[in-house]
Amino acid sequence: QVPLVESGGGWVQPGGSLRLSCVVSGGAFGITTMAWHRQAPGKQRELVAHINTSGSTNYADSVKGRFTISRDNAKKTVFLHMNDLNAEDTAVYYCNTRTGRWSWGQGTQVTVSS
What we know:
Layout: E1 4-7, E2 10-12, E3 18-24, E4 34-39, E5 46-51, E6 57-59, E7 67-72, E8 77-82, E9 91-97, E10 108-112
Parallel strand pairs: 2-10
Antiparallel strand pairs: 1-3, 3-8, 4-5, 4-9, 5-6, 7-8, 9-10
């Protein structure tokens, strides 16, 4: 088991910004491609962004240009900076490996509404 603790979610108006954080306890963080996933009500969980150990990133088309994923290997933390949020971004956000092979954490709720 690799405990994952996400934080930073909340309510924000359309056009607003949030920064999510995820602390990874244990596991081979430094050699693992990390990712953020999200699950909206009534929908399947989807991959939002991932970052490999060299810092190369990849994004879902729906968030490209608005979200930025980053990592701090010394602190075993992965971040998701989210700008220009809209209602379609409302979901519970989770960090995990790109393929979701670790046990899922509780996630952090992001709600975008006016």
